Amino acid sequence: MENGASSYRRFLDGDDTALNELIRSYSDGLTLYINSITGDICTAEELTEEVFVELCIKRPKFSERSSFKTWLYAIARHTAIDWLRKAEKQVLVPTDGYYRMSDREDIEREYLKTEQKAQLHKALSRLDPGYSQVLYLVYFEGFSNSETAKIMKKNNRQIENLLYRAKQALKEELRREGFVYEEL
User: Fold this and answer.
1) C-alpha span between 55 and 75 (Å, rounded)
2) Are 36 and 87 part of one and the same domain?
């Protein structure tokens, strides 16, 4: 799907199949992006659903000051940060830790598909959350630095600096594992 904005407009005009198109097009990427913030793939899946529920129920206005994808990822980031703020106030004791671990590995294997990408993803999860977010948005989702800046609520210079430090940290993490990823 090339234009999420047109599907969103169709959905707002009453075409329910347009929402399905949006979910198919963006849910996997949103889940992995939110996972880079929360560090929990099951929570990321739930929060991705919340993003689409918000679109469905609240029907926020898309002002077209950025691309639809940038706008959607900004909503996802806001949703994840709200969840983190609430989670900080709660003491959670997971009872299904083994279930979540195997579930996470299955989802990652299915989405990433190759061993190199899986290693890269694991290395990203060990980085500072800001580093993994900026790398994910720029390299996995293909956002420009300015779009990434809008999503992360930073300016372009901050994103350039953050991206540079994130790549250095990722290279060091991969080097410790004896792995070199050629695209960095």
Assistant:
1) 9
2) yes
Q: What is the pLDDT of residues 43-56, one digit of tens each?
A: 999 999 999 999 88
Angle at which helix 156-176 crosses helix 115-125, to 10 degrees, equals 110
Two tokens at 101?
Answer: 């671990």
First-to-final CA distance of the chain: 28
Query: Is residue 35 within 8 Å of residue 41, measured between CB atoms?
Result: yes
Q: How many domains does the chain divide into?
A: 2
Tokens 């004896």 sit on residue: 178
In whole angstroms, give the CA distance from residue 16 to residue 140. Answer: 29
Claim to verify: residue 130 and residue 83 sit in the same structural domain: no
Q: What six digits make up the tokens of 26?
A: 């963006």
pTM over 0.70: no
The boundaries of the domain holding residue 159 are 114-176
Q: What are the tens digits of pLDDT across the range 58-88?
A: 888 888 888 899 999 999 999 999 998 888 7
Q: CATH no. for residue 171?
A: 1.10.10.10
Length of the chain (residues): 184
